[in-house]
Amino acid sequence: MTTPIQTTPREPIPEPLTTLVWEVQQIVHVLQTLPIEKIIDVRDYVFFLQSRYVSDQVVDEGDEWTDEDLIDATHSTMRYAEQSMGLVDDYAS
Question: How far, in Å, CA of 73 to CA of 67, rounded?
Answer without folding.
Answer: 10
